[in-house]
Amino acid sequence: MASYSDRAGSGEYARATAAPYLRRVWLDRALVPDWEAYPYCLPIFREEFDLSFDTAITIVVGENGTGKSTILEGIASLAGFDDAGGGKGYRPVDHSNAREIMGGELSAALRAGWVPKITNGWYFRAETFFSVARYLDEVSDRPPDFLSYSHGEGFLRFFEERCQKQGIFIFDEPESALSPARRMEFLKLLHRMDSSRNCQVIMATHAPMLMAYPNARLLRLTKYGLEPVTVEETDHYRVMREFCNDPRGFVEAALGE
Q1: Which of 24, 47, 103, 149 is most buried by its number of CB atoms within 10 A?
Q2: How many separate domains does the chain show?
Q3: Locate the AAA+ ATPase domain: which residues (predicted)?
Q4: Residue 188 domain-assigned?
Q5: Global pTM?
Q6: Which CATH number does the domain housing residue 152 bear?
Q7: What percent of the chain has pLDDT over 70?
Q8: pLDDT tens digit string along 60-88?
């Protein structure tokens, strides 16, 4: 069995090794500058933070404010991506329309185990998608013109063009720009990436449809840490099931609370 390694693998070794490439991420507590400052004050970091990846696709679910996006930002920084979205070698994304970004600070205290280290790939954020798409349209010799499509169509075309090669791909709530039908198309894209065996996907989502991807490892993030979960055990699924069983009654009850 290959051991964890921080070294960059040769191209031949990388091609011969199937995803996942990032096998482990953990917080080196000796490197935390201030436990009272964000993001280290988050409950997830109070105890030992140690996240292992044993499948090509890992999906993290949880309520807003638990730290899902911050963890993804930190992982993106470790992979050499801009923590506001983008890929290695691209100019930094315009942060002006995004919430505060803390991934770079978190990554300074994170350690990673790679087999081998992969820096190809992309970090997708709905908040900064148009900044990235505009940049790609500007610098391309034959502009893909992502911005001429609807938001959902632009997202899917963007994903299709970026997810054909070996790499690590990080998605932060991709469903925010996708209708239910487009989410089904995104599931098919995940399946193609998974079947290729050379793409690692780490995703945060609130969408039960995406959580149900059959080959994924599904983890729930709470103030107590990360734990394996089934889609049926998530609050997102339970709420959606109650709504589907009685849409009008569900809405009336919610408005009456």
Answers
A1: 103
A2: 1
A3: 54-228
A4: yes
A5: 0.85
A6: 3.40.50.300
A7: 77
A8: 999 988 899 999 999 999 998 887 777 77
